[in-house]
Amino acid sequence: MEEALALVSAPVPAPAPGPRPHHRAAPWHRARDIAVAAGKAAPRRSHRVPLAQALGETLAAPLAALTDLPSFDTSAMDGWVVAGPGPWRIRGAADGILAGHAAPAPLADGEAVRIATGARIPAEATAVLRSEHAHADEAKALLHAERDVVTGQDIRPRGQECRSGDQLLPAAALVTPAVLGLAAAAGYDELSTVPRPRVEIFVLGDELLAEGLPHEGLIRDALGPMLGPWLRMLGAEVVATRRLKDDAEALLAAVTGSEADLVLTTGGTAAGPVDHVHPVLRAMGAELLVDGVAVRPGHPMLLARIAAGKHLVGLPGNPLAAVSALLTLAEPLLRELAGRAGGAAATGPYTAALRDEVHGHPYDTRLVPVVHRGDRVVPLHYNGPAMLRGIAAADGLAVVLPGGARAGQEVEVLDLPWGELGAGEGCFT
Ligand SMILES: Nc1nc2c(c(=O)[nH]1)N[C@H]1C(S)=C(S)[C@@H](COP(=O)(O)OP(=O)(O)OC[C@H]3O[C@@H](n4cnc5c(N)ncnc54)[C@H](O)[C@@H]3O)O[C@H]1N2
Ligand code: MOO
């Protein structure tokens, strides 16, 4: 302890004695708004990447078609392409016209030729007959239709889906596998996207073990294995997750040396003798944008601007408090930095009715793990600040305002990024 206090004293200023005053705690919605504003104020970035690397990023500019789609009149079916009314004289080679072939010779009125799905329609053709709706006579000279033929049937005209230059998707659209397919069809080899924000994670704590069972006051690090994958699901590139001892000098060196857009620290946010995050931020001359939030769990969370366009989010060490801070401060900031805020992926919070009553905190907002069941959300037990058992069975966090919420009351819900995978039936409710 002596040693730890000595380390904090020079050159990093020691924390103020006694508990940190709470007058600076921002209301929960205000804290999120500040995180959004911090993200919006950061410089916009974009890069050009091959299609395969763009997955999960957002479009930096609208996606305009580089070609008509389809780029030529094309057959929608395997069968016969005909000109004029039938019956038709069967023309030419047995194979007919195949997809990928050069322009076929024009059809004369009264002619039919075999055609494959996706093949180019010859000039003067009027319709395509599916093979199952037509038959040739025994001599294979004449083709007869087996049902009425409508002009233009089963021909996809050039430009049916889009014309070259048409806007296919707006800027900020999330690049999904379907978007990669559309971009390729529309002629793109590369896309201009917003790069994933780079995040570096520093997990603080002398008491943390990287493997094995807890023993002699040491506990497993629950945040290192959780945060990287979670941040990737939020669209971040995690450059590293490093465990640091409770050492102010080491933390200062790590934070100042980081090239990430967002540094995440875990632990050390409170006012204990080895809680070095505040003193390190002071030593760096960082600007504290949020210093405590009126939310349970996680109230010592903080957000600081540590350099132009670079931020630090301090997550409290209690694991559920860290999740609360991740979703309160890091998620909205990253959504802005990743350019996801304006796109269709930005569904934002919504409301749902609680199945059961949730007791409130007298002054602070509570974030409570819930799981969707039908049109209701069920609050989960094991939601204490040090517990992950509730959140591990959850697919959302309910925002319970001071005073609590009755059964049946609508509350705001923050989806967890794996919600669509579905949470298993838990025995926790
Ligand atoms: N005097 C006060 N003490 C505390 C206050 C306060 O307002 N005044 N707030 C409490 C609250 S609320 C929280 S939350 C914690 C926040 O603590 P820190 O951010 O400083 O975190 P630590 O003290 O380092 O750790 C707290 C707790 O979490 C465990 N921990 C830390 N890292 C991990 C990890 N990676 N995996 C699993 N568990 C972790 C650590 O062992 C502690 O048990 O402060 C309260 N105190
Ligand atoms: O933020 Mo603390 O999690 O209330 O224990």
Automatic annotation (TrEMBL):
Enzyme Commission number(s): 2.10.1.1
UniProt entry keywords in alphabetical sequence: Magnesium, Metal-binding, Molybdenum, Molybdenum cofactor biosynthesis, Transferase
Listed CDD domains: MoeA
Pathway(s) served: Cofactor biosynthesis; molybdopterin biosynthesis
Cofactor(s) this protein requires: Mg(2+)
Catalytic activity: adenylyl-molybdopterin + molybdate = Mo-molybdopterin + AMP + H(+)
Highest taxon of source: Bacteria
Ranges for domain MoaB/Mog: 200-336
Family stated for the protein in its record: Belongs to the MoeA family.
Annotated function: Catalyzes the insertion of molybdate into adenylated molybdopterin with the concomitant release of AMP.
Protein name stated in the entry: Molybdopterin molybdenumtransferase
UniProt organism field: Streptomyces noboritoensis
